[in-house]
Amino acid sequence: MTSSEEHFDLVTIGAGSGGVRASRFAASLYGVKVACVELPFGFIASENVGGAGGTCVIRGCVPKKLLVYGAAFGEEIADARGFGWAVGGGGGEGDEAATPTHDWSSLMKLKSKEIQRLNTTYGNILRSAGVTFVEGRGAILDPQTVEVTAPDGSKRLLRAKNVLIATGGVATKIPIEGAEHAIISDDALALESLPDGPIAVLGAGYIATEFAGIFRGTHRHAVHLLFRGDKVLRGFDEECRQQVQENLVRRGIVTHPNCKPTRIEKLGEGQLVLHYVNAEGAELQLPVAMVLMATGRKPRVEGIGLEAVGVELDAAGAIKVDEFSRTNVPGIWAVGDVTNRINLTPVALMEGMAFAKSAFGGELTKPDYRDVASAVFCQPPLATVGYTEEQAIKEFSGNIDVYVSRFRPMKYTISGRDEKTLMKLVVHAESDKVLGCHMVGPDAPEIMQGLAVALKCGARKAQFDSTVGIHPSAAEEFVTMRTRTRTLPGTGTSKL
Ligand code: NDP
């Protein structure tokens, strides 16, 4: 039963990265009356579970990064021995005391506490910006009405001239027999303990490579990575993909390229058999204790009343929007992963801000998708901004100069770790404009953020060259690459 009806300038459905940013900016910058609707908090998303902060904060970027930090200490401990530290014993071969052990459950308890704190903070951020936070499930009844069903079943009607959909996305499973025995990233980020046996991770994208590293760093059993392509991280620069793949193998992850999972058989608790077909067409079996499917995400469009008002979806099931985040229904807008543009938190933030300005700032504003930097937190991480070598060749006419530097980081010369850092610049020869920067190695995301500013400013290679390096650092390599590794003819038509 409807108990109340309230009037706002904006009702946002979803308090994740895009929804919170848009609501906050609309209220605090443009002084409009905003309500933001979100499901009650929980670690694993479902029809009735969500939480302020959304995927990034509760079951994505933030908890993942905490686990990446946790997993990386093993490597630090190993490297420390090379620097004379006797960690947990003499460190000699067979010295059991020297083998560091990790307690997953204590890490998870601390992770969960931090995520709950952040969830509260996100609610407070909204409230202190003057946004009315409404807990419950929001569904659009007509273009200016959102009905919210609270956890206790009571209903509220929120009316506004503008409705913003920012419901994000959900992890998907590949439809094979026994898929119900596999977990998804939400579950992996909430696991109370690791299973007593090998883990298989399916997929080779962001989430798969990041979790392969987390499990490898914390788990005492084998970690397998199975994927359908010949290399991990499709879409990234080819040389970087190769480097990441080599690093995964060198760090002990068992990679299975060109594989197609066909079935998951459950023999008992923590006893699974993953059936798959390999590159040669042979049907193989892998006994494991857990299977993580990291095989993509899809926009969360169900149950929010889109059909009722005729909001159009694209072929991938995402909400169709124009360059200003407007749907086909006047007054209904959408930002973030539910629109499946570039599915990254900082992009959702940008879309949220552009929306607020378009809707309430009196200026239609397009998000700017040029030179969006991103990082994959595999170990060591990959970070990138701008064109890959392959994209640059396809896009531009004229020659493309490529500068590549592959070296052993200084720290490893003493620690003995056998791993190379890769740095790469892609340059348009005629204009000297730097089209892309790529790195696989420690601190790559921290370094790449600064280079993203340079690219956004249209930096030329000569300006990289005239920049004085910080010595000794890995980052200085980006401004000291003087010798072209190769020049390739562009096959595209774009000019600079
Ligand atoms: P990705 O798109 O990165 O990777 C999906 C993987 O699943 C690919 O390896 C893909 O293979 C594989 N796959 C898809 N369908 C099938 C299938 N039917 N059978 C076998 N394999 C399949 O998605 P993720 O789930 O890793 O991440 C989702 C998005 O979330 C990312 O695209 C990114 O935008 C965002 N994200 C960002 C992070 C960051 O910024 N660090 C971290 C995590 C997520 P193929 O390549 O062959 O298609």
- Name of the CATH first level of the largest domain: Alpha Beta
Head-to-tail CA distance between termini: 61 Å
* Named CATH topology of the largest domain: FAD/NAD(P)-binding domain
CATH architecture of the largest domain: 3-Layer(bba) Sandwich
* Helix fraction by DSSP (H/I, runs of at least 4): 25-40%
Secondary structure tally, helices: 13
The chain-level structural class is alpha/beta
Task: Report the bound ligands by name, code or SMILES.
Answer: NADPH dihydro-nicotinamide-adenine-dinucleotide phosphate
What is the CATH superfamily classification of the largest domain?
A: FAD/NAD(P)-binding domain
Task: Assign an overall shape.
Answer: globular
- Radius of gyration (CA) equals 24 Å
Largest sheet composition: 7 strands, mixed
Low-pLDDT residue spans: none
Q: Estimate nothing, just give the exact number of structural domains.
A: 3
Number of strands: 22
Beta-strand portion reads: 25-35%
Mean of all residue-level pLDDT scores: 96
Domain FAD/NAD(P)-binding: 8-352
Protein name: Glutathione-disulfide reductase
Keywords: Disulfide bond, FAD, Flavoprotein, NAD, Nucleotide-binding, Oxidoreductase, Redox-active center
GO molecular function, one term: glutathione-disulfide reductase (NADPH) activity
Quick summary:
With 496 residues, this protein is α/β, with parallel strands linked by helices. Helices cover 30% and strands 25% of the residues. The chain has helices at residues 17-30, 54-59, 61-82, 104-128, 185-188, 206-218, 238-250, 306-309, 345-360, 389-395, 410-415, 444-456, 461-465; strands spanning 2-13, 34-38, 132-135, 137-142, 145-149, 155-165, 169-171, 199-202, 223-226, 254-256, 260-268, 271-277, 283-288, 290-293, 297-299, 332-334, 374-376, 382-386, 399-407, 421-428, 433-440, 486-489.
